[in-house]
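Teaching note: in complex prediction, the entire set of molecules is handled at once rather than each chain in isolation. The prompt given to students was simply: 'Predict the structure of this complex.' The entities are:
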Amino acid sequence: MNPSSDSFAPQTSAKPGRTLRPTVFWRIAEDIPKPLNWSLMIASIALPLLLWWVVTALQLVDPKFLPSPGTVLATFQRLISTGELQKDTIASLWRVGVGFSLAALFSIPIGVLMGSFASIRALLEPAFGLMRYMPAPAFIPLLIIYLGIDEAPKIALIFIGVFFFNALMAMDTVKFVPKDLIESTYMLGGDRWQTLTQVIFPHVLPGIIDACRINLAAAWQLVIVAELIAANEGLGRRISYAGRFFKTDEIFVGLIVIGVIGMSLDLFFQYLLRVSCRWSSQRR
Amino acid sequence: MHIEIINLHKHFDTQNGRLVVLKDINMTIEWGEFICAVGASGSGKSTLLRQIAGLDHPSGGEVRIDGEKVTGPGPDRGMVFQHYTLYPWMNVQENAEFGLKLQGIPKNQRRERASYYLDVVGLTSFAKALPKELSGGMKQRVAIARALASEPKVLLMDEPFGALDVHTKETMHEFMLDLWQRTNITVFMITHDVEEAVFLSNRIYALGARPGTVRKEIIVNLPERTHHIKRQSVFHDYRDELMDLMRSHGQEAFAAMAA
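The expected output is the structure of the full assembly:
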């Protein structure tokens, strides 16, 4: 106690000016106004395009290395008119479709079983955890030896690259099923199979769709990698073939188409998540 | 015909040795009674309820329902948890029907029975609502309707109103008494809320803590069960007796922690 202190005002060591200042742009974990949000999102795509256009218009880089947006658009139209681009796109999409569907078909039930039963988890998690850290492209030589150079190795590559991740991610979603919900089901007369199929599965479905969305991105990368190595058609093959003949404009067309398709798939899964899981608070 | 809890004993083996949670618990629940087991934290009351539910197995002793030993969970005992346990992707009607669906009861029959119990809890007009659209009290009423739809022998309640605000809690108390009188359901509820126990039960088991034991059995005789009773001395006497019981075991627990 300070005897000379005759003030009963609360003593505080906090300095003035520590009050949090209001802001719009720098709000942490809060939404920003819709118009600002849209402008920033448009800028995110428009600014790089503008930069690209300026750099090529001023001829800052040799057009051989960096074709202008106009050249790339013209090449895009040419590849569409000959039907080559459609053929490549369909080939790549087909491989991803088959490989990813097969991986999802097996990984989702196995993952849910791993999440639900400690026994299955103990049996599979160490092996899956190990496999997950082996990069899928490292399997390409083996896949070519085992399966040749047709469609089979490419689909197998996507399967390997997606299956283990997706199973482990599906497993993790089961952690978020409240134990009370499972016990309620037992108390209502549910057996274990009913609990698994009618309570756990619907509860983890949003999480599984989200896991699939993330792993589809991996599948889409792997198909391009597979086609870079050996293929007769496909977007990856288009790029590697164009590279051999220094057709940078075709490389750009390939890259942009790959990006746009990947992002469309992502948006589709986000839509699926919103529609099928309206009950869930897990909104994106 | 009744539920018997005979010499129930439960311990857990932890890193710090054996932890005895329940010791020599003996209770009987007659059909049609409303019983509360009241205890502070550490009295093992939730563990006790889990043994009756069959969600956990006793280390010693047993629970018998109509003479038959409990070996696992089942719909003859309706359970209402403290935390909301409605299935979030099902609407209120589907939630209320779900137990009957699991038990393989035909669609028409289960629709009819669930609707009846939704009416009993006063939520018929919310049949199409999703759980996230309901208030806390309404969620618990759906959980009660869902449990009742299986027409259980006993309703087990694990601090079902613990998460509700004071006013909703009071409404739920009156609702529970009304429900109990109308349906003749047997209720076994655990709580730490002494007033809740006195207001609702016709019999109370006061639990001591560490290890959980039955400290005293109190038969509650109140002249009426409306909120006026809470201001009368007869209510206060019951409440104070229970509070003293809980206080003294609270001190014991504190001493045990300090030791």
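Point out the following to students. Chain B touches chain A through 26 residues (CB under 8 Å). Residues 45 and 247 of chain B are 16 Å apart (CA to CA).
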